[in-house]
Amino acid sequence: MSDETADPERGRGPDRAADADAPAGAGRDPLWRMIALARPRSARFLLGVALGALAAGSGVALLSVAAWLIARAAEHPPITALSVAVVATRALGITRGLTRYLERLVTHDAAFRTLADVRVRVYERLARTEPVRRFRSGDLVSRLVSDTDATQDLLVRGLTPPLAALLTGSAAVALCTALLVPGGLLLGAGLLAAGLAVPLISAALGRGPGRRQAAARGELATALVDTLYGAPDLVAYGAMDRAVQRVNDADAELTRVARRDAAVLGFGAGASALITGLTVWGTLLLGVAAVEGGSLGAVPLAVLVLTALAAFEIVSPLPAVAGRLGAIRAGGERLFGILDAPPAVAPPTDPQRRLPADAGAGGTAGAEAAPAEALRVRSLSVRYAPDEPWALRGVDLDVAPGSTVALVGPSGAGKSTLAEVLLRFRDPDEGTVELGGADITAFPADEIRAAVAGVPQDPHVFASTVRENLRLAAPGADDDRLWEALERARLAADVRAMPHGLGTDAGSHGMKLSGGMRRRLALARAVLAAPRVLVLDEPTAHLDPGTRDAVTADLLAAARGYSTLLITHDLAGLDRVDDIYVVAEGGIVEHGTHAQLAQRDGWYARALRV
């Protein structure tokens, strides 16, 4: 779009669009919302918790039985007295490994499936197009990768281990209490301190660094993307050093925040080790005192102490998980920032409604037959936020079947805002837009986009072959149809001169093609889609005068027979269009043919003389 395209940070579109798609969970803690994403697989996660508790319990029981076996063996009993413990030790060792494997298998499978669902939701949201422009490209990549992956981190590390620790820790405390009440109470206090108090403190300490880490990661990604894609201009204007310094500064900030995060993790590990040592020593002293008092035997003492030691292995991962909650919460906020972004286009009341089929609608490559479809705009008004000025105000415009109409005016006049409305990237605030007599807001956006094809001023060319770039519009098109479209767009000769013809690699962002070729390729792609209306938005922007005139001539020739709206601030070649509208400050100020407007003392005539 041209420079009148809305700033991504300016607003969220019309109020009614926001109301139509208001996120149900907006305002809730991101952590709870991320956990709620796993609700369809709650049974799998519960099974994972049970398996995790069984694995942890097997580990504690293995050390407890081993302690009993060693202590009892020191008393030199008959070998038959130890056989059950020996078998139990082997069984618990196998059970521990098997259940740990199954727990990882089940929980990771459920987490990956949930993550896949989240990614699909994010991509579906972005596929509605308008939220993409609200985020910087590097920051958007960070949200799609790191922040989306935070869901998996929470489900795998922050959901199953705490619940499994609660179940197994309770069983360990019950066993130790049965052996020696003071020892069991001390173990319970130690587990609460190491498994609850320390994680809570770690979570509080990690909340700030975690939020800053997510923001710093997004800033680094943005700086890198801007530097890489803007390298030619940065070098040309001697600004590369500043761009590299920006990357270095962003990296230094991320490193500084990561160090603070590491300090939080170190605190959690150190505090847990300290509590573990104090609790085990306290349990040992209490046990020794009980043995001297005759209320506890030597064998139960060994079981008590080693069970207490093993129990802390259950809660040892929790402080690290809690320390990461700040970063995970920040990632969740950024993730839901995408999912909660209200659409600029409200869904129709009947999502299954389709435009009436018209035998004369939709041209075919190489055919001159016009789509029998007219575009009618009445009293159209659009603004980007309720408190902002009108980008368009009371616009009336008609595109007769098979005609070519130009919409011209200075930059910022609202031309590309009209293109956004026609291509269903934005809803009208007031007025109507009709296609063949049908209000376009009553149909699904994709249905309208199939009938109204756009050629933007900076068309995207994918890093693939010319053939595959064309087939985006018609996946089943054979090479004959592709060549017909290229002929119509005046690009066939250039493609034939390429080393591999249709199989030639266009390069990243079409860097192997000239600006004029990229626009002709976009036009050929639009022609292949066989639309009812063509919208050409600033098709000659950023081109030199010679290329600009040639591209304009080719575009108008290729668009002959279609109902075409040419949006431009360049007046070259407009003597070949059927009708011209001049827009200024969001409203139509002049209307007529080239000859009529050239004779008037208006903006068009003055622009021609410049």
UniProtKB/TrEMBL annotation:
GO molecular function, one term: ATP hydrolysis activity
Residue span(s) of domain ABC transmembrane type-1: 46-330
Annotated segments matching region Disordered: 1-25, 346-367
Localization terms from the record: Cell membrane
Domain named ABC transporter: residues: 377-610
Record-annotated membrane-spanning stretches: 45-71, 77-95, 163-181, 187-205, 264-290, 296-315
Membrane topology: Multi-pass membrane protein
GO biological-process terms attached to the record: cell redox homeostasis; glutathione transmembrane transport
Cellular component aspect of the GO annotation: plasma membrane
Record-linked SUPFAM superfamilies: ABC transporter transmembrane region, P-loop containing nucleoside triphosphate hydrolases
Cross-referenced PANTHER family: ATP-BINDING CASSETTE SUB-FAMILY B (PTHR24221), ATP-BINDING CASSETTE SUB-FAMILY B MEMBER 6 (PTHR24221:SF654)
Protein name: ATP-binding cassette subfamily C protein CydC
UniProt organism field: Streptomonospora salina
